[in-house]
Amino acid sequence: MSGPAPLPTGPLASLTARLLLAFLLPALGFFGLMGSGGYALAHSILEEELGQSLSAIAAATASQVSGERMLTIEPGDDVQGTRTWRNLSRLLGEVQRASGVRRVYAVDTQGRVRVDIGGGLPVGAEVPELARDRRELGRVLAGERTASQVLFTGSDGQLYKTGYAPIRQADQVVGVVAVEGSAAFFGLLVRLSQAFAVASAVALAVLAAVAVLTAQGLARPLRRLMDSALRIGRGDLTTPVPPEPTREIGVLARELEVMREALESRDRQLKLMLAGVAHEVRNPIGGIELFSGLLAEDVRAGSLSEAGGHVTRIQREVAYLQRIVEDFLAFAREQPLARAPVEAPTLLSDACELLAGEAEAKGVALEVDAVPTRLEADGSLLTAALVNLVKNAIQASPSGGRVQVTGRPADAVYAIQVRDSGPGVPPPETERIFEPFFTTREKGTGLGLPLARKIIRAHGGELSLSSAPGNTVFTVTLPLERSSRQEP
């Protein structure tokens, strides 16, 4: 016989670990998706907004620049401080101060500086940053305003973006105004994302605490149930299963307690039966041993007349021993019911006919009075139960007495009563009369009445006793067949 199955082990075996995973994995996914997705979306929106703002400032500035005059600015004009250079420098400087941008400069179509405010490049120098935005410059020279597609890091370590707009002379693009603006707000976005990460960590910690507390709240009663189940599995059937306040776990605890009580009752009954069998078997075996010894002595002495009597006694003890074994097997065996429609009068008459000879030998009259009713029952088993009741009544009746067997429908049951006029059952014995192996007769096995009750309960009925001197009644109540209940 194999032992109990080993308990699961490993990192996910405990309820706490599983609840932590159940709580934290979705939360991690949610916060991670919200954090990274929200940051990327906010970054994209803010970057696009910055590019549109810078390109709008560049377009407003370019609309105030005369392309014809800008083209007259030559290298060295910034050193000499020519009027045209000063005027354009003043315009771009005012734009820089008013908008708060880092740098504003104007270049011709070849990318050479005409005026650079904030960058410090001389007139005629090429702007290195323009090589990075060739595609954007191509669109500007085609007459559109736009902004650089990527952020770049300045010498101060900050992120910047450039907006571009065309400078026109008549309908021809002759230059470009570039406005560099700081993306300092991305620092705020980073701090916001850090704050979100901290808040997410706090939320995960709270969820972890809730998961642990929930797991402990569930694990404690489940652990108590597990301990109770292990105790029952080890054979401790006397310790009750403690009730639990939680509804679902409470149902498990109640059902486990019902199972424990049933096992305890079955175990107690089995021990009682084994003790009863040992006690009952000891008597006939002792008799067989005694009479076989006497038989051996008579055979050696040649006294065959006495030997015949000993053989008869041995056969009687063997028959009694056989009856004990049969009654024990009948009581211990779980017999499935073969239900079929049975007429109640026939059932009662058959049981009485089997005992007619015994009743006549004792001088006891058997009377049967049954109202016709159809029962759904196992006829052979129910007959055996009634035979035990009628036989018990015959044995209890005095010579010249009578045993009445009646059957009447009442409400939703059919009541069968077996009444005798014997001395009755004393009150102390009334409670024990249905216990296995309890008997007041010298040669009784004490299994007839317990077997009868077992069979009747298997049919969904009940067997009860009321006893007084001269009037002892066993009452059997059996559920009526559905069609019989509907009869008037």
Automatic annotation (TrEMBL):
It is a multi-pass membrane protein. It is found in: Cell membrane. It is an enzyme of class 2 (transferase). Coiled coil: none annotated. Residues 276-482 form the Histidine kinase domain. It holds the Pfam family HAMP. GO terms for cellular component: plasma membrane. SMART domains: HAMP, HATPase_c, HisKA. The chain crosses the membrane at residues 20-42, 196-219. It catalyses: ATP + protein L-histidine = ADP + protein N-phospho-L-histidine. One of its GO terms (molecular function) is ATP binding. Keywords: ATP-binding, Cell membrane, Kinase, Membrane, Nucleotide-binding, Phosphoprotein, Transferase, Transmembrane, Transmembrane helix. It comes from the Bacteria. Residues 216-268 form the HAMP domain. Its EC number is 2.7.13.3. PANTHER family: SENSOR PROTEIN CREC, SENSOR PROTEIN RSTB. This is histidine kinase. It comes from Stigmatella aurantiaca (strain DW4/3-1).
